[in-house]
Amino acid sequence: MLDGLRFTLERGEVLGLLGPNGAGKTTTFLCLCGLLRPDSGSIWFEGRKLGGDRGRTISLIPETPEVYPMLTVWEHLAFVARSASLAPGWEPRGEALLGRFGLLEKRDALGQTLSKGMRQKTLVAATVLAGAPVLLLDEPMIGLDPLGQRELRDLIRSLREAGTSVMMSTHNIESVEALCDRLIIMKAGIAVAVASVAELQAQYGGGRTLEDVFLELTA
Hints:
alpha/beta, Rossmann fold, 2 domains, 6-stranded mixed β-sheet, globular
């Protein structure tokens, strides 16, 4: 359950969403992308209130990577390209995304044959290809090997530079410190802090780590 959650996500910003298990992180994402209907409140994008159909505006990569078992890796990209009405000529960008995640050799592999990490990479590549201005990542590093995590971090940085707004839920403190411009720390459905890493460390005492601050706020 969420209680009075209110925040902004700026264009070209990476916003981290931290909290212990059950804090409401996934619920927040499901409300934002329209898969759950909140009891009250509203979601706005560039001055307009969003309705239930937000797929062209907000894309979600869920924590559990589910792919279509009988579609190949490349067919997932083609399906998204058609669903998002991408202009002709999207294929080179799709191939570049597959290459970035080491999936070119798997382009003709069926979804049901992919490992969890490969499924995660396929979802990331397909979702980024769609080009929604807001991207939600729910525990995106789970299942990725170290190289895949590095490539995803680099991709998030490039998306930020291109003006995409990214919101990322994670328990990985190192990823938060490396990527996030600001943080929302949640506890029991409530945002107990919304600030940058530096602001949090300054507010709760110099020399303390982000992990120390997080544990104090969510104890």
